[in-house]
Design a protein that fits this description.
Helix content: 10-25%
Structural class: alpha+beta
Distance between the termini: 58 Å
Radius of gyration: 24 Å
Strand order of the largest sheet: 1-2-3-6-5-4
Number of helices: 2
Strand content: 35-45%
Length: about 150
Amino acid sequence: MSAITVNGVRDSVITLLHQHFSGISTYGEEIPQGPDKPYFFVKLFQVSQDQLISQRYQRNHSFDIHYFPAAVDEGEENRQNEEMHGIAEQLYEKMELIPVIGGDDGLIQGAKMRHEIIDGVLHFFVDYNFQIIKETTLDPLMQTMEQEGFIRG
């Protein structure tokens, strides 16, 4: 199995946003000074890995995708909320299955998707959980061994 990396999952999320929301800028871990709105900001929260059996591990990636809408005039906040709920609807559909960059060309499924609007910013939460198998390296085998045995008697 090809290794799926943390950066591969993060890059997959960012690339998918670029593809489906081409008119909206998308930023990873850092936002440039004074970006033009609207834009997405992808925040990778916690990543965890638990051993299941032998070389099989469960890996969990939690994301918070922020959407900063374009500025509106005073009194049009309701229209802005409608826009953000519309973006959230699209994110539920688009983030359900994402292709993995640098992996085995497979898809990973989003789980625990939810959204909320806090202080005029949409927060869309999604987890990508999957199993990986670590490849093991075999220790070299012994070349030869001589054993002697004696019987007393």
